[in-house]
Amino acid sequence: MTIADIKKTAETKMDQSIAAFKNNLQKIRTGRANPALLDSIQVEYYGSMVPLSQVANVTLLDSRTISVQPWEKGMGAKIEKAIRESDLGLNPASMGELIRVPMPPMSEERRKEMTKLARNEGESAKIAVRNLRRDANESVKKLVKDKLASEDDQKRAETDVQKFTDKHIAEIDTLVAAKEQEIMAV
């Protein structure tokens, strides 16, 4: 493995960490409805548990209401039960085959909890990026130790990896700030 491979691998993994972080941020509830909020809900379907998105169409009716349209007639009650029993604190209402999931307004205290949660997710993502930086630097040091690269190459590589790290951490900070703003907006 060359220094170029190590740098490319580190940057790719950092990009993947950012993607995972964005996915986690989507699950944090804001004042507005978001179909991704229901992604974690599992529904019993012919004896096995499957994600809600595999048994129903999840869309937005308006900024505060998610609609769930089951693909099979008998699934409405099971989907409604799964949403009600999830730890999201949502209360779905059936209207024929359509299930409406209104988003209750969040209290100031709940908004602050959600911003804390967003910051914690951001910190976890930063830790993941820093661990990737450490791994890349250790790999470069191993190449130098095995006499496959010079110490000058090591310094250049560490500088480049630090630049990737700084860029990704700045992106995480930006995403956290945007999410906090979204949560605190009434």
From TrEMBL:
Any one Gene Ontology cellular component term annotated for this protein: cytosol
Source lineage: Bacteria, Pseudomonadati, Pseudomonadota, Betaproteobacteria, Burkholderiales
Stored NCBIfam families: frr
Family stated for the protein in its record: Belongs to the RRF family.
PANTHER family: MITOCHONDRIAL RIBOSOME RECYCLING FACTOR PSEUDO 1, RIBOSOME RECYCLING FACTOR
Organism encoding this protein: Acidovorax temperans
Localisation per UniProt entry: Cytoplasm
Protein name, UniProt field: Ribosome-recycling factor
Ribosome recycling factor domain boundaries: 21-184
